[in-house]
Amino acid sequence: MKSLIIFYDGPCVLCNYWIQKLCQWDKENRFKFTSLESKFAIDFFNKNPSPILKKDAIISWDFEKGYHAEAEAVFRILTSLKGFFNFFLIFNLLPKSLTNSIYRYIAKNRYRWFGKHEKCPLPNKKFTHKFL
Questions:
Q1: Where are the chain's structural domains?
Q2: 3-class SS at 24?
Q3: 9-67 pLDDT, tens digit each
Q4: Is the CB of residue 4 less than 8 Å from the CB of residue 62?
Q5: Max CA pair span of the chain
Q6: CA–CA separation, 31 vs 4, rounded Å?
Q7: What is the DSSP letter of 57?
Q8: Is there a contact between 13 and 117 (Cβ–Cβ < 8 Å)?
C-alpha cells in the first residue's frame, strides 16, 4: 500500500495531539503528514483539485481511493491502522450525516476547548521522516 497522506490543521492543539499519537501508532510508516497550510499541501491541492478541500476538516488522500474528509477521513485512518483500532469502525455503521455532524461540532469548537498554536509546531525529531 502506498502512503496515506493526512492533511491537518497545523495550529490546532487537538489536531497536533492526534497527529503525534498517529506517529507513535504507525509502526509500518503507512502515514505521511502535512499541515493544510504547508507549501506541500498548497501545491498538492493545486495539482489535485477537489471540492472537498473547502472543508474545515482533516483530509486524507491515497492513490487508490482519493480524498476523504471529516469522519470519513477518521474511519479511513482507523482502517489503515488495523488491529485494535478496527473496533472503532463500528461507528462507521452510523449514518454518515450523523458522524460528520459530530465531527463538525468538535471541529467548530476545537480552538475554544483545546487552544491554538501561533504556528504549526515542529514534529518530534524521531518522526520527521513521516512529514512532507
A1: 4-130
A2: helix
A3: 999 999 999 999 999 999 889 999 999 989 999 999 889 887 777 777 889 998 888 88
A4: yes
A5: 39
A6: 5
A7: S
A8: yes
